[in-house]
Amino acid sequence: MTWLARKKIMRRDENFVDAWQWWRARRVALIVKDVKERLGGKPLWAFTLTWDKGWHHGQDPVMMNDAGVDIDALMFYEADKPQYAAMVKSWHDYVHRGDVQLMPGNIFDWGLHQKDEAGPKEFGRRMRLAVDEVYADGPAAGIFYHDIARLLWGRLGPWGTKPWAEEAAALSRYVKDKNSEKK
After folding, report:
1. Strand-strand pairing, 144-146 and 45-49
2. pTM above 0.90, yes or no
3. Boundaries of every domain in the chain
4. Buried residues in 9-41 as b, exposed as e (16+ CB within 10 A)
5. How far is CA 27 from CA 13, 17, 20, 35, in A?
6. Within 10 A of 160 (CB to CB), how many other CB atoms are there?
7. Residue 111 three-state SS
C-alpha cells in the first residue's frame, strides 16, 4: 500500500496515474450503474468536480453517462481566473453534446471567486464562459446554482443577496436564449 500511495502521490509515472484514475472512474461508474438499476427508471443526477474533468476524484463524465447518469452537474468553482479558463478549456477539448448531458454550475460565494472586485458580475462571466465553452460543439442546455443557502447567508461581499440573485436570473435567461437560438 505504501508503494502504491507513493507512486500515485508522486505523480511521476503518467501512465500509472492515468491507469489509476481510469480504474477509480470505472469503479464509480459500476456503483452508478447499480444505483440507476435500483431507481427503476427514475432520473439520476450526479455532481462532478471539475478539476481535470473529474478524473482526480474517480469520476469520468462519459463513463458516468454510460452508467446511467441523466444529468452530470459540473461544479465549476474554487479557481482563479486562469485556472477557471483552463478547466473550461479542458472540458471543451474532451466532450461533445452527444457524449454526455452536462450542466455547468457555480456557487454564490465571493470568497470562492477570490473576492474579485466585480463580485456577482464575475460569477456571471464565469458561468457564461462555462455555458458557451463546456462542449466542443455548442452551448450547455442548462445550469445550476450550487448551495443556494449561501445566497441568503453566505459570503456575498458588499453586494448582499439581491445583485447575486439578479445575476442568477440573468444567467438563466441567457441559457434559455442561447438554446432557443440553435433550434
Report:
1. unpaired
2. no
3. 2-181
4. eeeeeeeebeebbeebbeebbeebbeebeeeee
5. 21, 15, 11, 13
6. 12
7. helix
pLDDT tens-digit map of 78-120: 899 999 999 999 999 999 999 999 999 999 999 999 999 999 9
SS3 category, 148: coil
Backbone φ/ψ region at 149: left (φ over 0), alpha (ψ -120 to 50), beta? alpha
What is the tens place of the pLDDT at every residue in 131-170? 999 999 999 999 999 889 999 999 999 999 999 999 999 9
Mean pLDDT computed over every residue of the chain: 92
Residue of 25, 24, 7, 28 lying closest to 16 (CA atoms):
7
Contacts of 95 (CB under 8 A, 6+ apart): 61, 62, 102, 134, 135, 136
